Amino acid sequence: MLNELLIIERGAHQAGLKLIQRHPDIKDAGKKPTLRVRLGASGEVVGIDPVPRETPLWTFGRGNKLRFPFVQPPVPLLRRATASDDLTILTKLRGHQWRDCLLKLCRASDFNDSVLAHWPGIRGKNGRWTQRPEQYLDALRARAEQLQGLVSTDGESVLAVIDRFVAACGATDNCGVDLLRRVVERLINVLEQSPTDDWLSLAESLLLRGGAALYFDVPTEEFARSAGDPRQVAAVTQALEATCSPDADQGICSLSGEPTVLVKDTFPELVLPIGKTILFSRFDAIPSNGRYGRFGADSFAVAQQVADRLAAGLRCLTVREKAGITWRMIPREATKKRDLLLAFVEEVPDAPAAGALADDEGDLSEESPHTGLQDDSVAAFEKRTQRLVGAVRARVSADFRNTPVRLIVFRKVDPANTKAVYAGVPTVGELYNAAMGWVAGEQNVPPWLTLPVLRKGETKPRPMSPPHVAPLGVIAFSKAFFIRGGKQRKEVLGFPAAEALDLFLDRVGKSGDPTWQRITRLMHLVLARRSTIVSSTAHAMRRGFDFAKEFDRREVLRTITLLGVLLHKLGRSKENYMNDVAFKLGQLLAAADVVHAGYCADVRGGDVPPSLLGNQVFTIAQTAPTKALAMLCRRWKPYDGWAKKADRERRRTDTLIASKKPSEKQRERDIKEALRCAREMRPLADALAPALDGCAVDDTFRAELLLGYIAGLPKAQRDDRNNGDTATQVAEMEE
After folding, report:
1. Which helix (H) or strand (E) holds 391?
2. Are 306 and 313 in contact (CB under 8 A)?
3. Choice among 470-479, 497-506, 559-568, 709-718 with the minimum mean pLDDT
4. How confident is the model at residue 124 (pLDDT cuts 50, 70, 90)?
5. Distance spanning both ends of the chain, measured CA to CA
6. Are 188 and 45 in contact, with CB atoms under 8 Å apart?
7. Distance in angstroms (rounded) separating the CA atoms of residues 325 and 342
8. Each residue of 623-678: pLDDT tens digit?
9. Which helix (H) or strand (E) holds 13?
10. Which of 230, 480, 469 minimizes the C-alpha distance to 360?
11. How does 362-385 read in b/e, with b if 16+ C-beta sit within 10 Å?
């Protein structure tokens, strides 16, 4: 991982980003509900306010000790008199009822002095105090001595809050407990003044549930900067580095090759979107780590300054403001946990590189409510890619297409171990070409293919075309395995990020090479896990929409999109495969289903059997298409006879047309559609018979067959309807 971080740091430095280095003792505070406590000159509590969750906070710390000014009490500050389910009731209340119940519980509770008697010492997980209050305060006094360089600077507030906290807790015995009592009293007073939900949620956690934290600071108007200001990190780092001992461990840095001060204890720790991360660690409890008898920082010599720069570069590119630009969370192939994708253009770090590879794939019902067309989501992906290219072109004067793009996927293995599981360096031109090829693949589906989808906030489903599937969305897509006829979804091992990125970036090679094998492997996986849901949904739609409600039609549409992408990468464009034998066989089977459903609507009064004619031979067609066609022809005669006879007697549907019952009108539509399909499938069947002889059956054949079956014949055009009306008029005149 350190090698990848070195590349990141150099790229960020070349891009001109301001890298703020941190002293190893400076950590990111946890994202817990936090109450800021402002201390006056004598250590008295002069103000409190909740800290918004998105506000970045820093703190001192060495392991789990010496945390300040971010301090987490080990237990709730109040102890309830009786154990009851009152806290469960709180979760169901809102507004003034929530406040009133919370205040009632607080007034009926006592301060938790039996457990907090030795605060601000450190209490271990076993309940014992591993550091006494006087030890904790002595360590803070030593820290204040190290920070004397902050006097008369913008960082002076950090030194002031340490002095004030020590004064408040160290005057006499139990002064730390008295400080907490004053915080509790002030917080309850605020609750009595009808505070907002932020106050109520924080008070509930801090006073009754536990898990909240305190952040000690100074009044806002007293200093140029508050102690919690993120800009204090640089000032504090500079002050601490000025006090470093000249006798610090010297050695040769393994990354830079220069003699310098090495990391002594632990590598820098930072909070990434995937969680708290140590840049490098080797735990002595893992037997394989002791092969050479060295653990921790002693096992890999790295300059302290280099390690700080690596952490600064990674921290700079993963801040919240750059989400979707330089980083994005992506799914993991094996579990529900997620990995971190870092994607940035070295010379233009503000270019939205991450958005060209992954996006927020939420509920597809939120796609473009006015049209529901495929072009809406696909065009959005194309536009994001064009914005990336435009941003690079505006900043890079030379051939911008050759500008490198860094792609790295980080995976958190355990709390102290993060790995880089993928690293690649495509150019902007290669990324753009890959994106345009992906768009072409997403459009490589039958243009008339739609399915009714219920959109968010609507009560009636509307037609929707196959939507965009992000390149890294293939990971989550591949984890879904549909069983029980496509009605039940099961999570299994999916496609890894490295394979998905290679699939996106690589062009199609020759048959048998790694790129070709990767595409065919994913094709086989998609067919094995999703063929059933696609064919079952197609069959259910022809039996009637009510039968299709139990199938996830959004996933069917996404499957169609990815099949189009894979066929395009194999050189099978829709202009070719839609005129080939596999697709046309699928259309023939779909038309047979429609004719069978129309026959049932007319002859059986709308009573449709569990399996229609085309669906009965679809499974056989995936392995023995010639046999399937022969079986279809043997069963076709009664339905063909009905269609010819019904076509001559079209006027008898007038009764259904005049009916006001929706079911009767639907029967009329089914009959009309069946007659149209019967006319169009006769020449189709005649042309298929000789073409199937010697046809190779592989996964490409099965994918095209599946697309033909779900697409069916194109919708009837206006001239088709006119021809039908003309035939009816001629029959009437003849009579």
Report:
1. helix 374-395
2. no
3. 709-718
4. low
5. 86
6. no
7. 9
8. 999 999 999 999 999 998 998 888 777 655 555 555 567 777 788 888 888 999 98
9. helix 2-14
10. 469
11. eebbebbeeebbbebbbeebbebb
pTM: 0.79
Average pLDDT score over residue span 489-510: 87
**Two tokens at 496?**
């890894």
- Band of pLDDT at residue 14, cut at 50, 70 and 90: confident
Give which of 533, 715, 706 is closest to 614, Cα–Cα: 706
Token pair listed for 689? 């018979």
DSSP state at residue 425: -
Q: Is the pLDDT of residue 284 over 90?
A: no
Contact 250/260 with Cβ under 8 angstroms? yes
What one-character DSSP code corresponds to residue 590? Answer: H
State the pLDDT at residue 652.
Answer: 52
Angle subtended by helix axes 514-543 and 613-621, to nearest 10: 160
* Owner of token pair 């979804």: 489
The 3-class secondary structure across 531-543, one letter per residue, is HHHHHHHHHHHHH
466: helix, coil or strand? Answer: coil
Q: Which tokens hold the place of 306?
A: 């280099």
| CA pair distance 77, 208, nearest whole angstrom | 7
- Give the span between the Cα atoms of 135 and 273, in whole angstroms: 34
Tally of CB atoms within 10 A around 138:
13
Question: Residue 216's closest CA among 43, 73, 36, 28?
Answer: 36
Report the Cα 532 to chain-centroid distance in Å.
26
Q: Is the pLDDT of residue 574 over 80?
A: yes
Residues 125-151: pLDDT tens digits?
A: 655 666 778 888 888 999 999 999 899
160 SS3 class: helix
Q: What is the largest CA-CA distance in the chain?
A: 114
